[in-house]
Automatic annotation (TrEMBL):
GO molecular function list: heme binding; iron ion binding; stearoyl-CoA 9-desaturase activity
Localisation: Membrane
Keyword Oxidoreductase among UniProt keywords: yes
Cofactor(s) the protein needs: Fe(2+)
Protein name stated in the entry: Acyl-CoA desaturase
InterPro entries: Acyl-CoA_deSatase_haem/ster-bd, Acyl-CoA_DS, Cyt_B5-like_heme/steroid-bd, Cyt_B5-like_heme/steroid_sf, Cyt_B5_heme-BS, FA_desaturase_dom, FADS-1_CS
SMART domains tied to this protein: Cyt-b5 (SM01117)
A Pfam family the protein falls into: Cyt-b5
Documented EC number(s): 1.14.19.1
UniProt record similarity statement: Belongs to the fatty acid desaturase type 1 family.
Organism whose genome encodes this protein: Penicillium patulum (Penicillium griseofulvum)
GO biological process, one term: unsaturated fatty acid biosynthetic process
Cofactor annotation comment: Expected to bind 2 Fe(2+) ions per subunit.
Domain of life: Eukaryota
Length: 455
């Protein structure tokens, strides 16, 4: 009901405290909707870097350092912020946590505490209004709109971050976030290039500013591209998707459909040949004694999800096919009536008590017109099932589409039993569609009937 007050909205009493994000954006107030600090970090700083790059020559050593530092800071987000702190998919020793908190801070994407809280909300409330970067609000919104535009923090779904508050590294990084950003985002990469080979300005512009821009855009793709591009092998009810391109861009976070299904698995890619350098880094750190308790879902559980999704796809495909009128919806015919109609020129053939109108098919019968005509007006069950020719699975399927009635009489009990089987639960999919498996068509006899008198 539209008149019912929304619990998540402020009540009338405190309307003066309405968050700007909950008001209509107009020509006059649009600038109030913008988070200018984030605009400066995400858009302003990169633009300044691009401008400076015009007169700062790029040295080879600086370029290589910028790429290396790109990977370090990117892994700070993927292996640190994401898989360690947001999902606890493994445990890390203190030196490794300090290292990840530092390089992750160098990616300039907020503190671990803030990032992981939003990310947990994203997993818990995927695609809903409580998802801080719901792709349902648009691809651009999920990429950076959610940071550029102000959000009412009360709208973001609640999550438990008590574990993060107990991690002194997380708390320290949160309290000293600006120092970490300046130190690891700009000063450290500049120092390495400056002290290393005297390229102070290049280190600042390329390994600092522009590298930040690339790391940000790459890891933002986990929220946008990974919810937009690719396949859904495990569940298609929500937006997360798997794609190699997203994986390449995000240091292996591109198998996002898997990730949303099994978020506490330290892997995103489960096949050895899939690109997941974050997983390889965590694994290597384990060998070095820096990481431990790497969590992994049993392949039995993973394959169950995959099979269920495949089954869903098959059900959808099956529903589009013509499997013939269900037996219990067919009219009951007297045997004499059946014979009579055939005599009057209607191409009816009874197989296993089911009457089929093959009038239009006689000329197309692969075994020739004469063969099919010889069965008209008779009980052709045996002929069809090996007496003359043991018809293929395809033939039984095709035959079912020509059903027009069911014979009353001798075969009745048998036929109704089969009709019940065809309608019983175990041969229906979850949408209620009948599942007709190969060899289980009602017209099919379990064993070929021997050619006693084929002629
Ligand atoms: Zn996601
Ligand atoms: Zn995640």
């Amino acid at each position: 009901m539209s008149s019912k007050p929304d619990a998540s909205r402020p009540r009338a009493a405190d309307t003066k405290k309405v968050h700007i994000a909950d008001t209509q954006m107009t020509r006059h107030n649009w600038y109030k909707h913008v988070n200018w600090l984030n605009v400066a970090f995400i858009i302003g700083v990169p633009i300044s870097g691009c401008i400076q790059a015009f007169w700062v020559p790029l040295q080879l050593k600086t370029a290589i350092w910028a790429v290396i530092y790109y990977f370090f800071t990117g892994l700070g987000i993927t292996a640190g912020y994401h898989r360690l702190w947001a999902h606890c998919s493994y445990s890390a020793t203190l030196p490794m946590r300090i290292w990840l908190a530092l390089v992750g801070g160098g990616a300039v994407e907020g503190s671990i505490r803030w990032w992981a809280r939003d990310h947990r909300a994203h997993h818990r409330y995927t695609d809903t209004d409580k998802d801080p970067y719901s792709v349902r609000k648009g691809l651009l919104y999920s990429h950076l709109g959610w940071m550029v535009m102000k959000q009412n923090p009360k709208r973001i779904g609640r999550t438990d971050i008590t574990d993060l508050n107990e991690d002194p590294v997380v708390v320290w990084q949160h309290r000293n976030y600006i120092k970490v950003v300046l130190g690891m985002g700009l000063i450290f990469p500049m120092l390495v290039a400056g002290l290393g080979w005297g390229d102070w300005y290049g280190g600042f512009v390329y390994a600092g500013i522009l590298r930040i821009f690339f790391v940000q855009q790459a890891t933002f793709c986990v929220n946008s591209l990974a919810h937009w591009l690719g396949d859904q092998p495990f569940d298609d009810r929500n937006s997360p998707r798997d794609h190699i391109i997203t994986a390449l861009v995000t240091l292996g976070e591109g198998y996002h459909n898997f990730h949303h299904e099994f978020p506490s698995d330290y892997r995103n890619a489960i096949e050895w040949h899939q690109y997941d350098p974050t997983k390889w880094t965590i694994w290597t750190c384990k060998q070095l004694g820096l990481a431990y308790d790497l969590k992994q879902f049993r392949s039995n559980e993973i394959e169950k999800g995959r099979v269920q999704q495949l089954q869903k796809k098959i059900d959808q495909k099956r529903a589009k096919l013509d499997w013939g009128t269900p037996l219990d919806q067919l009219p009951v015919m007297e045997w004499d009536d059946y014979v009579e109609q055939t005599k009057n020129g209607r191409g009816l053939i009874s197989i296993a008590g089911v009457v089929h109108d093959v009038t239009d098919f006689i000329k197309d019968h692969p075994g020739g017109k004469a063969m099919i005509k010889s069965g008209l007006g008779k009980d052709a069950t045996a002929m069809f099932n090996g007496g003359v020719y043991y018809h293929s699975n395809g033939a039984h399927n095709l035959l079912s589409t020509m059903r027009v009635g069911v014979i009353r009489g001798g075969g009745e009990v048998e036929i109704w039993k089969r009709a019940q089987k065809e309608n019983s639960e175990y041969v229906r999919d979850e949408t209620g569609q009948r599942i007709i498996r190969a060899g289980q068509q009602v017209t099919k006899m379990p064993e070929p009937i021997p050619t006693a008198d084929a002629a």
